[in-house]
């Protein structure tokens, strides 16, 4: 009996071990993982109608991810999926991604990744969404979030509980263009800098432009954008800067098409005809070189188009002698036309000469320059000569002022070395005198090459200087001088310009530390 009881007890104990031996392990609570599965959405920025790429990552934490089903929400008023392949697989899924969209929600499903079939051990980019920013999107951030998403490690889907949302920032844009100018040695080449386009009002800008100091030097920089314009230049280093901020705090912003400022270069004797001298911003991505903000002070997405100064032909005019030359001037060009090219000219009479840019089509109002250079003109007419290639395009150009004697008289030469020095509300002019001249007419204008027919002042005798007073500070003035006698008046001198400034103004040349 006792022996049977012992056998029964042994059987019960064995059965208990078999049935309940692992029960304590099963009953113990599993420790929570330290690193759960995380889904992260990246960031991107762009302008309206740009295509932007937003990456999506999975960090498996302490798990392995064999399959995912992610729901990505975005604002359909700001973003839309790009045409074509709107989502790109980045994790080498076994098959094509399953992509569905509805009402600003993008669902992406995929499974079995790479050789291991799992996303394991470290964060991995799983796909990239290609959004197009809508034309009507407002500026600022637009969130891209993860909602109601799952992953599978073994069999059953598990909820993704840890997410990091992303965003697409819609930026306003601005494009600044450095224009083009031309001139020959000793002449002034004026180059405008303007706001070509902008998607929002501009409240400030700063730009640093490089130029070739062996061929060009800045004579002045005229601000066209209103108050609070500051400029400086260094003719040794070949750099200049222009800075402006809306003094009205956003009430007088700049808009597309507005001119920012105008640079007036003097072309040096070292510049060779035909040279094309670039005007560039060395690093447009560096804020110390180029900055454009909206009226709230936020930096805009910006681009800058480089400019150029083209060194033109060296063109001169003289009064011809001999029968049949009355009413004509003799045009000479120092340079020789290139192979297959010809010289053509146009007489602008008393109007401002408009030099063609390189590549411009030369129209029928330009005539072939005769071999002897004799062309009909009146004294003081402005004449442009262009070298034209076989395609009818300008290669280079230059200008001169006609010298034509009336009757048997002799035309006086043009005064030389006219210079202009700015003061407070005034400009001091000086020039070299002309033999036989009995008086000098001084002409003034606010546009280069345009002074009007009526002189601003006249001085007589051996007077080679004049102070022009009553001028507006901050305005660029252009000057020319003509020598005259009882037989008539000669051609314009070289042009000089200056910007009157009040005492203490920082307009003009000064050294700077390289930043804006």
From TrEMBL:
It comes from the Bacteria. GO terms for biological process: polysaccharide catabolic process. Signal peptide: none annotated. GO terms for molecular function: carbohydrate binding. It holds the Pfam family Cohesin. Residues 414-503 form the Fibronectin type-III domain. SMART domains: FN3. Residues 492-509 have a biased composition (Polar residues). Residues 492-516 are annotated as: Disordered. CDD domains: FN3 (cd00063), Type_I_cohesin_like (cd08548). This is Cohesin domain-containing protein. It comes from Cohnella rhizosphaerae.
């Amino acid at each position: 009996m006792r022996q049977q009881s012992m056998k029964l007890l042994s059987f019960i104990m064995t059965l208990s071990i078999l049935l309940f031996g692992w029960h304590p392990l099963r009953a113990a609570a599993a420790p929570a993982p330290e690193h759960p599965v995380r889904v992260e959405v990246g960031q991107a920025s762009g302008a309206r109608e740009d295509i932007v790429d937003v990456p999506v990552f999975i960090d498996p934490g302490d798990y392995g991810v064999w399959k995912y089903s992610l729901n990505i929400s975005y604002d359909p008023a700001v973003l839309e999926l790009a045409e074509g392949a709107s989502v790109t697989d980045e994790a080498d899924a076994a098959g094509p991604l399953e992509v569905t969209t509805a009402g600003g929600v993008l669902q992406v499903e995929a499974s079995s990744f790479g050789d291991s079939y799992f996303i394991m051990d470290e964060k991995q980019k799983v796909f990239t969404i290609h959004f197009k920013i809508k034309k009507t999107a407002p500026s600022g951030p637009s969130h891209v979030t993860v909602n109601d998403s799952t992953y599978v490690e073994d069999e059953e889907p598990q909820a993704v509980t840890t997410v990091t949302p992303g965003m697409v920032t819609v930026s306003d844009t601005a494009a600044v263009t450095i224009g083009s100018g031309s001139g020959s040695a000793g002449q002034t080449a004026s180059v405008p800098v303007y706001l070509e386009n902008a998607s929002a009002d501009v409240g400030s800008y700063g730009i640093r432009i490089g130029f070739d100091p062996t061929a060009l030097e800045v004579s002045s920089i005229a601000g066209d954008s209103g108050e609070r314009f500051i400029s400086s230049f260094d003719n040794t280093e070949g750099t200049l800067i222009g800075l402006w901020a809306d003094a009205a705090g956003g009430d007088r912003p700049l808009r597309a098409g507005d001119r920012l400022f105008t640079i007036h270069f003097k072309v040096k004797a070292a510049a060779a005809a035909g040279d094309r001298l670039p005007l560039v911003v060395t690093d447009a991505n560096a804020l110390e070189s180029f900055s454009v903000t909206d009226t709230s002070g936020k930096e805009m997405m910006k681009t800058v188009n480089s400019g150029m100064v083209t060194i033109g032909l060296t063109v001169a005019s003289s009064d011809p002698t001999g029968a049949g030359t009355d009413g004509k001037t003799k045009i000479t060009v120092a340079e020789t036309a290139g192979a297959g090219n010809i010289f053509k000219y146009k007489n602008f009479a008393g109007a401002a000469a408009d030099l063609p840019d390189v590549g411009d089509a030369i129209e029928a109002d330009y005539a072939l320059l005769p071999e002897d250079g004799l062309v009909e003109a009146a004294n003081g007419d402005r004449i442009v000569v262009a070298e034209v290639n076989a395609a009818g395009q300008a290669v280079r150009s230059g200008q001169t002022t006609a010298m034509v004697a009336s009757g048997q008289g002799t035309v006086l030469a043009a005064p030389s070395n006219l210079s202009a020095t700015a003061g407070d509300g005034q400009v001091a002019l000086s020039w070299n005198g002309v033999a036989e001249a009995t008086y000098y007419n001084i002409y003034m204008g606010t546009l280069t090459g345009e002074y009007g027919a009526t002189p601003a002042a006249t001085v007589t005798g051996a007077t080679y200087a004049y102070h022009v007073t009553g001028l507006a500070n901050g305005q660029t003035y252009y000057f020319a001088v003509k020598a005259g006698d009882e037989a008539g008046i000669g051609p314009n001198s070289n042009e000089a310009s200056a910007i009157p400034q009040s005492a203490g103004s920082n307009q003009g040349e000064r050294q700077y530390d390289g930043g804006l």
